[in-house]
Design a protein that fits this description.
The structure is a single chain. This protein is α/β, with parallel strands linked by helices. The chain has helices at residues 11-19, 24-36, 40-51, 57-88, 160-173, 190-199, 209-223, 228-244, 247-259, 265-277, 284-289, 298-310, 319-333, 337-345, and strands spanning 101-113, 117-136, 141-157, 181-186, 204-207. A 5-stranded mixed beta sheet has the order 3-2-1-4-5, with helices on both faces. It starts with 10 loop residues before the first helix and ends in a 5-residue tail after the last helix.
């Protein structure tokens, strides 16, 4: 008689065998919860409370890792399609143009990568520009103002070259080249405007008003570090100048002030250079009158939405783990998760 011994598979093989029997719907919801909730632990609690399913956070993470790679593959295919169109000099297919203007917004956020430290996650969005009537409480009139609507997002943990290709592919997917009036919004980071000049060179360039206003506050504190009332008066005057498009005057005043401050000369000079360098991107009154949004924190908000998922208390990510969850988060924020899921689910598994 032949004796057959029991075979015990390693735990990871047992888990893979069990997870292979997941329904598509269960895999989809696990991936969605991974991207929308602040942690895998909360996804586990949600499954238990609402779905009455006992599923560990590590199991949910394995599903997100698997399907996140699929979302990343879809991103690569879109980028390749955009590059093919560019090489052929053709205009890519796009939906019927429902709006006259489009824009892109660009920002960065820091997330902690194990064994690497804090790394910048570059975030971009593509949006339509819609003009709406807004009530102005000061003038008591209704004014037409441009607003960014219908956002779609991309993000990349790495250099600006690859990120720029992803953002350009997303813009192409939305029919960017069918729009003659376009806008690029960002802060003062040099990599942003290098990217814009390469991919979106004919777009109206705009420093997000929120970021410019932050620099004004910093300048006021530098000029009057011990006199908050004087700092506020200076700020009030120069906020008006900034909005009216006189960043060059602000730059000149700060440069003059820097020459008389030995201790704060370098910092004041930095602020003067910021306003001087970006003055053509700070014509806010003109931009608003022409129906373009001026930002007011729009770009900052994009990065914060990604940080909400990746920068919770004590969170440390492996590079692979972050890179696989980022496209899931982007698809959810873009309201494209349900549309992309069938494509992702039916990709050949390596």
């Amino acid at each position: 008689m032949t004796s057959v011994g029991l075979v015990f598979f390693p735990l990871d093989q047992q888990l893979e065998l069990w997870e292979a029997h997941w329904s598509e719907g269960l895999a989809k919801e696990a991936s969605w919860l991974s991207g929308v909730l602040p942690s895998f632990e909360q996804a586990e609690e949600t499954f238990a409370r609402i779905g009455h399913l006992s599923m560990s956070d590590s199991t949910i993470w394995r599903r997100a890792r698997r399907w996140g790679e699929g979302f990343r593959q879809v991103e690569k295919e879109r980028q390749a399609a955009a590059n093919r169109v560019a090489q052929l000099g053709e205009v890519g297919p796009s939906p019927v143009k429902a709006v006259e203007r489009m824009g892109v917004g660009i920002d960065g956020a820091k997330i902690h990568i194990r064994q690497e430290g804090w790394k910048e996650l570059k975030v971009g969005c593509v949006f339509d520009i819609e003009v709406r009537l807004i009530f102005d409480p000061e003038t008591k009139e209704h004014l037409e103002q441009g607003h960014a609507v219908n956002h779609s997002y991309v993000a990349h943990l790495g250099g600006p070259e690859r990120f720029g290709e992803l953002l350009w592919a997303a813009a192409q997917q939305r029919g960017w080249e069918q729009h003659y009036d376009t806008q690029a919004v960002g802060d003062g980071a040099p990599w942003i405007w290098n990217l814009v000049n390469f991919h979106f060179y004919d777009s109206l360039q705009t420093i997000d008003y929120y970021h410019a206003s932050e620099h004004l506050h910093q300048a006021a504190d530098l000029l009057y570090p011990t006199d908050p009332e004087a700092a506020q008066r200076w700020l009030n005057r120069n906020e008006t100048r900034l909005f009216q498009g006189h960043a060059d005057q602000i730059a000149a005043n700060l440069a003059q002030a820097a020459s008389g401050h030995s201790q704060r000369h370098k910092d004041l000079r930095t602020e003067a250079d910021y306003f001087g360098k970006h003055k053509r991107r700070m014509q806010y009154l003109e931009f608003r009158e022409e129906g373009y949004p001026i930002g007011s924190g729009m770009v900052e908000s994009e990065a914060k939405q990604f940080k909400a998922r990746f920068c919770g208390p004590g969170m440390r990510w492996s590079r692979e783990g972050a890179e696989r969850l980022i496209p899931i988060r982007a698809a959810i924020m873009s309201h494209q998760f349900d549309t992309l899921w069938p494509i992702v689910y039916n990709l050949p598994q390596n």
